[in-house]
Request: fold
Amino acid sequence: MYNLKGGVVVTKEVAELQKIIDNHDNIVFFGGAGVSTESGIPDFRSKDGLYNQKYKYPPETILSNMFFYRRPEEFFRFYRDKMICDTAKPNAAHLKLAELEHVGKVKAIVTQNIDGLHQMAGSENVLELHGSIYRNHCKKCGREYGLDTVKNSEGVPKCECGGIIKPDVVLYGENLNDDVMNRAAKAINEAQVLIVGGTSLSVWPAASLIDYFRGNHLIVINKTPAERDSFADLIIREPIGGVFSQIVAKK
Ligand code: ZN
Reply:
């Protein structure tokens, strides 16, 4: 344990993270599902068997482009049940990252999550690699819809023009948004510090984006070993909310 000024006792790793944050002002955070699980949003990739009891297909199949068009009823049953978690609240990690952006430390948040919790916490420059449940559009006329239309409709949500409303969420078999990818690569490339949290970096394109990093410190906060651990100069094996709740955001 480490004694910071003011008598706050933190672990050696958290003290080291604080020092790195204090000494840099171009920090990028790259986050995965683990950031949101502490807000009660389940990671559909985790093998808890929850989904298998209720659905005939694994989530990777249901959340694919082909499945969406072939079996839209079943897609939306799963989507409303498992993917829309709009009652979740930002946790200490989301809140502290927003604070760190406001004091000029964090320049961008790159996330694989689609829950909008970073924006809810007050973050502004959020690059959503996999889209967002809060944006939806008609496949026929392009009209945009919020979450409520999809959430409150029955069966397959339809536009006034008769077209299917599709969530702006990147499904398996679909390409990521080029603009978001380019902005994420640029932010990571220009960062002095990259904090990777709540992801094992096993989902494409996470690992390839990390390769753009040329900065001073790569920090990994993950409960289990991740792919780029060997490149990290600081690894913290503690819950991410707990880590960030101990960090002080100052200019
Ligand atoms: Zn339409």
